[in-house]
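Good morning C.,

I know you're traveling, so I'll keep this short. The sequence:
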Amino acid sequence: MKQIIIGCFIASIMFTSCGSKKKQAPDLNISLAQWSLHKSFFGNTLNGDWERFGRLLKENPDSLLQGKLHPDDFPKIAAGYGVNTIELVNTFYFSKAKDTAYWTTFKKKCDDAGVKVGLIMCDALGDIGNADSVERQKAVANHYDWVMIAKRLGAPTIRVNAAGTGTAEEVAKNAADGLQKLGAFASKEKINVVVENHGGYSSDGLWLAGVMKAVNMENVGTLPDFGNFCIERTADGCKKEYDRYKGVTELMPYAKGVSAKTYGFNTDGNETQIDYARILKIVKEAGFKGNIGIEFEGDKLSEDEGIKATKALLEKLR
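The tokens, ready to paste straight into the viewer:
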């Protein structure tokens, strides 16, 4: 009897219980995208008037932060949801692009909360696929500060947009050029650059995969978003939408992260617009191992409820 007890005690060092293997961490690590709380940070300033929002973002970005929560507290807020990785959005910190002291303090807040920054989503910095080479380079350079912030925070990745004007072929060529230039700068700092399917041509999975092939850089990849496949939008809604399952399949070979977009849930806890079992099967079969970010954008549930429901669904299926 004593020998059995000793044997089980020794085995417990390698196993969770005698005769059973220790549980390994899942391949998909659940992170929290800050945009899930954008209403709580912006409050009433984000009312659908994107022209006004863009103007204030340049003139007085901190004036937009009128919500019940503040982005400074996001590390602690995220930890309260039981996640260990956060995804920042630069528009919440637009006035802090060159404030190194701020980011030193923010890093301490992350450490104190027990979370790390997985990526920084970068918007409103110009079109990387701009047809004008001078303007394109300006847009590329506008991302440099955020590459350095990512490095300071220990974040491996920034997310950018492959936007521009012209034909699909023209924008693809220009976007590839801009991404190669930004990728070269980021590579020196050991930072990845990923492109999200985020409207326009970029929501065409085949188009964005073609841009990745043209860029052909180890540190430049994709951030497949389960929901952003509207290629053409009108005042009445999405006029032309790309097949999300086909798009995710096409983008996964280049993925360095995944964005788990959700809108609403049924009584069984399943997403009402996206077949999550099907789409996560695509992610898994691609061999992806890394962060999958909760990004709730629904309006039937509160942001808090939506985040919790998305997390529960991912935990059930991952």
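Safe travels,
E.
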